[in-house]
Amino acid sequence: MKCPVCGMDCVKSAKDLLATLSSFYTPCPECSSRMLDKHRPHARLDYAPSCSCGKRFIDEVFAHIYVIMTDMGDLTLQDPLIAAGSPLIHPGIALDRPPFLPHDSLVLLSSRVTRKTAEKLVREVPEVRGVVKTGDFVPGIAGPDLTTVPRTYELLAGCDVRADIFPLPTGPLVIYKQQSLVHIEFPRAGYPKLRSLVSKVGSPPVPFFVDACSGVGTLGLAAGCLGVPHVILNDAWYASAFWSAFNLEVNREYLKIDRVRIFEQIADMQKHPVSRDQIRIAETDGDQSIEIYQGDFRSLPEVIPPGSSPLTALDIFDKNNPRALQKIREEWAGKVGGEVFIP
Ligand SMILES: [Zn+2]
Ligand SMILES: [Zn+2]
């Protein structure tokens, strides 16, 4: 599969990605590991090279990044190691111990890095696949206001497309995203959102599930993998709707579908970064009907068949505002019916 961001082959189907996973972050007998204190400066300015197996312990990779960033002036020798940024591994899975990283398995998020340094990091640190400059805001749509174009982080060098892998009773779900454009969701221990979805969907599964604020598609596609015959995913932000459609294609082998029809490519979607009315982005042919829309969830009821009473997940921003939440739930119940849950 061609990567929609860099045009190279950095994305794989779920099946191909999962085939390599069991030993992906494990060391060979020759691999060495040195634990470094992330909250102190790495004053020795040294780092070990990759092992002959091609992997390197994550702390050594971070020491290498730190050495380059201090040398380039992005960090000072008073800065702790952690000031270099946050490492996001690709593919992202829950790990019992720190990983030994193969080539191209790390996206670095950093508020301190400059473009020139980012280019050097991608060139010289083999594990780094991309470098993203972060800010003190949430990238993508961060509130109920849809009138302004949201801010995003900036990809400075390499490619910031990466996948997270989520466990389901039916097998793992692979969810790709372009990291600079969507909010960072560190999988929480035990995957509480997915667990609540699995219990709501039930067995046999409900006939119809709506993921009204789908993000990059995790809950909606999980419902598809759990066998829900009809699923609608929707998000107002183009990057979320695009990656939902992309992830539908990535996981198609686990769904009862014959074909995925994509109606808009990413370049078309960039022309309408935020949409209020529903734009149809993708749908499937086959035993399972999965539809993806870009639009405001408040107008989503217009594309839901009347009387179909779906199970709806409303993963909205205003979770800390109980009155707004109650109003949204009541409106949804009045227009669409069925059961609503806030994951
Ligand atoms: Zn790429
Ligand atoms: Zn090794």
Q: Could you walk me through the main structural features you see in this protein, from its secondary elements to its overall organization?
A:
The protein is of the alpha/beta class and 343 residues long. It folds into 2 domains: 148 residues, no CATH class; 154 residues, Vaccinia Virus protein VP39 (Rossmann fold, 3-Layer(aba) Sandwich), CATH 3.40.50. Helices cover 23% and strands 20% of the residues. The chain contains 8 helices and 15 strands. The strands form 4 sheets. The chain has a 7-stranded mixed beta sheet with strand order 11-12-13-10-9-14-15, sandwiched between helices. Strand 7 and strand 8 form a beta hairpin. Helix 4 packs across helix 5. The radius of gyration is 21 Å and the shape is globular. The two termini are 32 Å apart. The chain binds zinc ion (2 copies). One zinc ion binds next to loops.
